[in-house]
Amino acid sequence: MKEIIWGLLIPFAGTIAGAGCVFFLRRTPGENTQRAMTGFAAGVMTAASVWSLLIPAMELSSSLGKWAFAPAVAGFLAGMAFLLVLDHVTPHLHRNTDRAEGPESHLTRTAKMALAVTLHNIPEGMAVGVVYAGMLTGDAGISGGGALALALGIAIQNFPEGAIVSMPLHSEGRSRGRAFLVGALSGVVEPVFGAAALLAAELVAPGMPLLLGFAAGAMLYVVVEELIPEMSAGKHSNVGVISFAAGFALMMALDVALG
């Protein structure tokens, strides 16, 4: 049980550590640095979706023969639809834009930016919870090392995300303490949704392939809708693409080495 609790908290710890940069760094990361951070996060999430979620989902459905892909595909599309709905009903503001998405609201710019990161973190928490549930069932071919690899990979890419939230808030006039708190709280949904996904997977064990696919779809929605546009915005640069490759390679290596 301790292993699972730590696994659910590791990604949140990454966000907290990143948000803590506001106490040590004087300037908000530059455009290229932010692109690199975003590209790296996109690479980690993409690799995690494939190696830690979709492949185990299809292996778990191998008894279906040629239709082994069906549960993973159904879950994947459902996860995409879930994030699409959340994206439309939640007022939020992405980095490098002044145009908010979602319904009209009187929330501050700071609150909308924090909500954007919170939406991003929901599928990550779900992914960790479902993978640890797969480890517990013993039927998904997911080892403790594989589950830990996913948690560590998400924690690593959460570190720059925490900094991207807290540093700009401080530069806009918020105190360091308040900026840190907002940055840290943006990741609190990860252990919450991770625990919820873990409970759901344990209650509906036969639906594990669907849940694994669901988490993958939700994560890749964030990659395509948010991260890739952000790492490519503005003046042309290859920094985002190179960082994407680095994040993808790191997550792939962690999953194989620890799994």
Question: What do these coordinates show?
Answer:
The protein has 259 residues and is an all-alpha fold. Helix content is 75%, strand content 0%. Helix 1 packs antiparallel against helix 4. It is globular. The two termini are 19 Å apart. The mean pLDDT is 85.
Annotation keywords:
259 residues, 0% strand, mainly alpha, 9 helices, single chain
Structural domain tally: 1
- The DSSP helix count reads 9
Order of helices and strands: HHHHHHHHH
Strand fraction: under 5%
Quaternary state of this entry equals single chain
Overall mean pLDDT score? Answer: 85
Classify the secondary structure makeup into a structural class: mainly alpha
Distance between the termini: 19 Å
**Unreliable segments of 5+ consecutive residues:** none
Radius of gyration from the CA trace?
18 Å
Helical content class:
over 70%
The major β-sheet equals: none
Secondary structure blueprint with pairings:
Blueprint lengths: L1 H18 L11 H30 L9 H20 L19 H29 L6 H28 L4 H10 L3 H15 L4 H25 L6 H20 L1
Helix pairs in contact: 1-4, 1-5, 1-6, 1-7, 2-5, 2-8, 2-9, 3-8, 4-5, 4-7, 4-8, 5-6, 5-9
Short précis:
This protein has 259 residues and is mainly alpha-helical.
